[in-house]
Design a protein that fits this description.
Low-confidence stretches of chain A: none
Largest sheet of chain B: 8 strands, mixed
Number of strands of chain B: 13
Oligomer: heterodimer
Number of helices of chain B: 8
Number of helices of chain A: 10
Helix content of chain B: 10-25%
Shape of chain A: globular
Helix content of chain A: over 70%
Mean pLDDT of chain A: 93
Low-confidence stretches of chain B: none
Strand content of chain B: 15-25%
Distance between the termini of chain B: 38 Å
Largest sheet of chain A: none
Shape of chain B: globular
């Protein structure tokens, strides 16, 4: 359908654009929170903002390959790692906010929360996965790890599932917003039906 | 502004939560489930005319109109800590009168063992009542209840104002309950009916999630919410992200001296 192929220079400009949006977006929210301008409870607000940003960026990352296939835009794939790393970046901020500002460095409370609260357990598990994916995201390591790299990075689907449940379990009563995320994730997973099933059968053989 | 005959301000050492935060950080799902939505969606809420009916197991049921809410009883200022079940808290100067005065005026019968409260049901004015998107998926009207001895405790307040003025709509105008030793969701807003009953009345959050929210809902640092700890809380005051505002939660929100007796011989883990 489309044969548009951006030059390397255009790709670099687009990547700078992504960096600018993500960083300015984050800095702007922190500026508001630090100056007590992010609602009445800036701590809750910044935790929510970084958590939702991590989830949104991750879903955006998972949208890239279906879009690239559907519209035959292979160059889109060159943004997948960048967005994935920003999902991890926001997840890091989310966790740091929780420990620094919500729990205010009460580490025993942190351990207790991770063990006792299922939604926090899931959130931490997802964070560990994203951490593993982030530190193995270099091209050189990818070549070195070969097939194992792909197996490891397929864990991104598990992380996405855990994060959506983490969000679902964290809200007090409203199920519509988390429900919409469940639906979006199911669509993204359904688009990869074949790949996920074959990976599953390969493992169980 | 409202005229007040006495105040407990000399007994309270907690720093007040700034008025701007008290009126912009609200759980009032009738106007939206996000904390900022009630302030945004409630400003056109019409509270005059109003009618508050006191009925049920009483000798002399009666109804108060809008003016009477402010004139039948002397108003006093009560500075109370408010502890939300979500583990944040505020300190708020309420204006109002003791719930016991209202109940005594109706002369409860010997069958009056519980007090049931009901919020206005008016989906045209309260968009959360007609929209699942706004209203958080709870059944309306919002209902709450107290045991009669809890209701008669001198801490139980019917509030008609805060910070010297009538209540803003997002805080439960024109009249709301304040029960400072219980989680905030017990303190029902915009009340139209108070009914004395022999049976324990249903309560909104208990209906929605009985494993998470009990009938008593006393502030208790030893009984965690299934999804988060209740051992500590963050006090909403002035200041941004770096304010060190995490404090230990006190049993009965620090009002044990006045209310612990109400729960003698009760297992508070079971009766959460």
């Amino acid at each position: 359908m489309s044969s548009y192929r951006p030059s390397s220079r255009t790709i670099i400009i687009l990547k700078c654009f992504v960096h600018t949006i993500a960083l300015v977006w984050a800095l702007y929210y922190y500026f508001l929170a630090i100056n007590d301008q992010l609602g009445s409870d800036p701590v809750k607000a910044i935790i929510h903002f970084t958590g939702m940003s991590a989830l949104n960026t991750l879903l955006l990352t998972l949208m890239i390959s279906p879009l690239a296939k559907l519209y035959r835009l292979p160059w889109l794939l060159r943004f997948r790692r960048l967005l994935g790393l920003y999902a991890f970046f926001f997840a890091c901020l989310h966790l740091v906010n929780f420990i620094f500002f919500e729990l205010q460095f009460d580490f025993s409370l942190f351990i207790e929360e991770v063990i006792e609260r299922p939604y926090i357990t899931l959130g931490m598990a997802a964070f560990v996965i994203l951490f593993a994916l982030a530190i193995t995201s270099f091209k050189r390591l990818q070549r070195k790890m070969g097939r194992q790299w792909q197996a490891l990075h397929n864990m991104v689907y598990l992380a996405a599932i855990l994060i959506v449940i983490h969000f679902y379990w964290s809200v007090k009563s409203d199920i519509i917003e988390p429900g919409a995320y469940v639906l979006a994730l199911l669509i993204l997973l359904a688009l990869r039906r074949a790949k996920l099933l074959s990976a599953y059968y390969r493992r169980s053989n | 502004s409202l005229e007040v005959v006495k105040s407990n301000s000399d007994l309270v050492s907690d720093t007040l939560t700034p008025e701007a935060k008290v009126i912009s950080h609200n759980n009032f799902y009738e106007f939206g489930a996000q904390k900022n939505e009630p302030q945004e969606n409630a400003q056109k809420f019409n509270v005059d005319p109003w009618s508050l009916t006191v009925t049920g197991e009483v000798e002399k049921p009666f109804t108060l109109d809008y003016q009477q809410l402010f004139s039948v009883f002397d108003l006093e200022e009560r500075i109370y800590r408010l502890r939300c079940v979500e583990a944040w808290s505020m300190v708020i100067p309420w204006l109002g009168f003791e719930l016991s005065k209202l109940i005594k005026r109706a002369q409860p019968t010997s069958k009056a063992k519980y007090v049931a409260f009901k919020t206005l049901y008016d989906p045209e004015q309260m968009p959360g009542q007609s929209s699942r998107f706004l209203g958080g998926g709870i059944d309306y009207p919002y209902v709450e209840g107290l045991r009669i001895d809890e209701a008669m405790n001198s801490l139980s307040l019917l509030s008609v104002g805060l910070y010297g003025k009538t209540l803003p709509p997002q805080n439960g105008a024109p009249i709301r309950l304040v029960v400072p030793w219980k989680y905030g969701f017990k303190s029902i807003k915009s009340i139209v009916e108070i009914k004395l009953m022999e049976e324990r009345p249903p309560t909104t959050w208990n209906i929605l999630a009985p494993g998470e929210y009990g009938f008593f809902a006393n502030v208790n640092p030893e009984v965690d919410h299934p999804r988060w700890s209740q051992a500590s809380e963050r006090r909403i005051t002035r200041g941004g992200l770096f304010t060190r505002n995490r404090i230990k939660t006190q049993m009965f929100n620090g009002y044990g001296e006045q209310v612990a007796d109400l729960y003698r011989n009760m297992d508070l883990r079971k009766n959460y």
